């Protein structure tokens, strides 16, 4: 089944995976304050605004994962002291779903400093933001409402690997995040070709 990009968020773990039929020549790169989805050196040039974006950032003890430019305003609002639910809802509502040929939903998850977790999506027909107590998946297609998922990762590397190898089609790259003391550990899985 092709579900497109997806996030998994649970109380102690988060993951994000790029799955793509249209733009498979991407990888996650580490930047100073973010993990960023970017084209590989051999990727064809594109002016598509949805191909490159920060998929992971942190602020004020929160970790944020998501499938697009909304990761930045969510992170900024958390840094200003917004509650996770409000930062997700306001940012997703303001940016709305992607205005591409598929009306692609925006998806995101937040781990909070007090061991909470939230997942959100904005689709053409709904804005959903939920606090979750177990690993929960939301994807851009087919599984575009949050649903619990068996996700057993204990380390960031395991989370990235489990997201990458999940039984959904067209894996490109993934990120894993776990709580690590007062912060977060991350790992990247760029697949065999990246």
UniProtKB/TrEMBL annotation:
Species per Swiss-Prot/TrEMBL record: Halobacterium hubeiense
Domain Inosine monophosphate cyclohydrolase-like: residue ranges: 2-182
Keyword Hydrolase recorded: yes
Catalyses which reaction(s): IMP + H2O = 5-formamido-1-(5-phospho-D-ribosyl)imidazole-4-carboxamide
Coiled-coil residue windows: none
Descriptive protein name: IMP cyclohydrolase
Bilayer-crossing regions: none
Keyword Protein transport: no
GO molecular function: IMP cyclohydrolase activity
Gene3D superfamilies the UniProt entry points to: Inosine monophosphate cyclohydrolase-like
Pfam families: IMP_cyclohyd (PF07826)
Biological processes, Gene Ontology terms: 'de novo' IMP biosynthetic process
Family, as annotated: Belongs to the archaeal IMP cyclohydrolase family.
EC id: 3.5.4.10
Family annotation (InterPro entries): IMP_cyclohydrolase, IMP_cyclohydrolase-like, IMP_cyclohydrolase-like_sf
Species lineage: Archaea, Methanobacteriati, Methanobacteriota, Stenosarchaea group, Halobacteria
NCBIfam families the UniProt entry points to: PRK04151.1 (NF003167), purO_arch (TIGR01922)
């Amino acid at each position: 089944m092709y579900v497109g990009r997806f996030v998994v968020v649970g109380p102690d773990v988060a993951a994000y995976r790029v799955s793509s039929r249209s733009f498979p020549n991407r990888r996650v790169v580490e930047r100073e304050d973010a993990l960023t989805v970017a084209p590989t050196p051999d990727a064809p040039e594109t002016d598509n605004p949805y191909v490159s974006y920060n998929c992971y950032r942190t602020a004020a003890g929160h970790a944020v994962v998501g499938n697009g430019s909304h990761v930045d305003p969510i992170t900024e609002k958390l840094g200003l002291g917004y509650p996770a639910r409000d930062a997700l809802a306001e940012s997703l509502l303001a940016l709305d779903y992607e205005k591409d040929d598929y009306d692609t939903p925006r998806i995101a998850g937040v781990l909070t400093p007090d061991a909470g977790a939230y997942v959100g999506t904005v689709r053409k027909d709904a804005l959903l933001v939920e606090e979750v107590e177990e690993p929960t998946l939301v994807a851009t297609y087919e599984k575009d409402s949050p649903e619990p998922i068996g996700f057993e990762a204990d380390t960031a590397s395991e989370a990235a690997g489990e997201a990458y190898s999940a039984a959904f089609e067209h894996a490109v790259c993934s990120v894993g995040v776990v709580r690590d003391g007062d912060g977060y550990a991350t790992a990247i899985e760029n697949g065999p070709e990246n």
